[in-house]
Amino acid sequence: MPEFTPAVIPARGGSKGVLRKNVKPLQGKPLIAWTIEQALATPGVVPYVSTEDDEIAAVSRAAGARIIERPDELAQDDTASEPVIEHAIDVVTREEGRKPEQVMFLQATSPLRLAGTLERCLTEFAASGADSMVGVVPAEIFLWSGAPAVRAHYPYEARPRRQDITPEQMRYRETGSLYLTRTEIYERHHNRLGGRIELFVMDPLEGIDIDAEEDFVVAEQLLRRAAEERSVPEL
Asked: Of 32, 48, 188, 198, which is the most buried if we count CB atoms within 10 A?
């Protein structure tokens, strides 16, 4: 397992769904601070916040992250995440004098990651021999589509009981919370996923993605619940 894994956290100032959501307080600390602190608590992981915004940079630096000054052309409404991660890899390579073997991509809008989640991801990635890994949570299998015709995506003729669902029948939802990728995959495919892809199965509690004001309310409730269960450390 590499001794050094940069965790890139993209954070643009021009969020649309919730104004200034990356620095909006969640249980008394800025949203982005949750992800930074989780990275800092993981051995070998160094958080880098890629932003064009001075306030986000100041808040992130105060939380312990290193800052990557993102060019304005990579901070547009239609900018994909991959060019931002590739720019961050280039900056880290220049600063460290070596190219990292792998990079973790963390979304600040997924603040709920349980204690040890990031370390477990690194361990599973190293053991699997994967080229890229995507964070997922178990999803509902009883799904239907309505076009071009109504169709079930499970065997409704022999509806399985939930406790009898087999591994082959299981489905998973990509959370957007985290990805772990060999840097050569970004170079070759310009994508966070490529080569041999493995799933990193997370706790359902970790599946929240904050995109609207009401998501902050849900996140507050989930964080309180996780803290009561002592699953999220006091950072």
From this structure: 32
Tell me the whole-structure pTM to 2 decimals. Answer: 0.91
DSSP E strand boundaries for the chain:
5-10, 25-26, 29-30, 45-51, 66-69, 102-106, 132-139, 144-145, 151-152, 171-182, 197-201
The series of mean pLDDT values per 10 residues for the chain, 235 residues long, is 93 81 93 98 98 97 98 92 98 96 97 96 98 96 94 90 87 96 98 98 93 90 78 47
Alpha-carbon span 168 to 153, nearest angstrom:
13
Tokens of 15: 């969020």
Instruction: Please say whether the beta carbons of 31 and 109 come within 8 A.
Output: yes
φ/ψ region of 26 (left if φ > 0, alpha if ψ in -120 to 50, else beta) reads beta
